[in-house]
Design goal:
Order of helices and strands: HH
Structural class: mainly alpha
Shape: elongated
Radius of gyration: 19 Å
Number of strands: 0
């Protein structure tokens, strides 16, 4: 599953652990949940926007088919 993600496709377990350790040291333990919440909200908004665009395109195609 991790390899299917585009941005970490070539990273192994040790590299990911080093990155997480650097993030922990850089931001501190108190900021990490706040950052994760912000990322989660951003991803959710992106998914909602893509669903809206997809629905608009599908409804436009259905209207064209009725003509």
């Amino acid at each position: 599953m991790l390899q299917s993600l585009l941005f970490i496709g070539g990273l192994g377990g040790w590299e990911i652990m080093v990155i997480l350790l650097v993030v922990l040291v850089f931001f501190g333990a108190n900021k990490i949940p706040e950052i994760a919440r912000g990322m989660g909200k951003g991803i959710r908004e992106f998914k909602d926007a893509t669903k809206e665009i997809k629905n608009e395109i599908e409804s436009g195609v259905k209207l064209e088919d009725k003509k």
